[in-house]
Amino acid sequence: GNEYVSCRELDLASLSSVREFASKLENEFVKSKAIKDDRKDVSDDNTEAKGKGLYALICNAGVWMPMDKRAKTSNGYEIHFGVNHLGHFLLIQEMIPLLRSSGMASRVVIVSSSLLKSGQIDMKSKDFVKDGR
How does DSSP assign 2-49, residue by residue? Predict the structure, then answer.
C-alpha cells in the first residue's frame, strides 16, 4: 500500500462513533499542531507533523435496506437518512479543522448512487427523518 493512504473503522449509523473517529484522527494527525477549542481557527505554523495531514475526505459509504425492515440508527433516525446524510454531514463538520490544517487545498468528495433517482420523500404526511419515506 501507499504510506500516505490509510483506512479507519467508522460506523456512520452512530453519531457517537463519528465523533470518536474524528477525535482519534485529530489526535493522530495533529498532535503537534494547535487546534483551538472552538474548532474554527487552525494553526499550521508547526511543521513537526512530518507531512501528515488530511488532504482528502471521500464520503463513499452508504446503506440501502428494504423499507419494510424499518431499520434505525443507534440514535433513532431512519437508517437511510441517518447513515447517508446525517452521518456524512457530521463527519465532514468534524473533519474541517484537519482539512484546514493540512496547509494545502484539501477536498471533500461526496459520492452517490443511481438509487437517488428512485427515492421519494413525502414531507407532508410522514416524518421521514424518523420513519422513512
Answer: -TT-------TT-HHHHHHHHHHHHHHH-TTS-B-TTSS-B-----TT
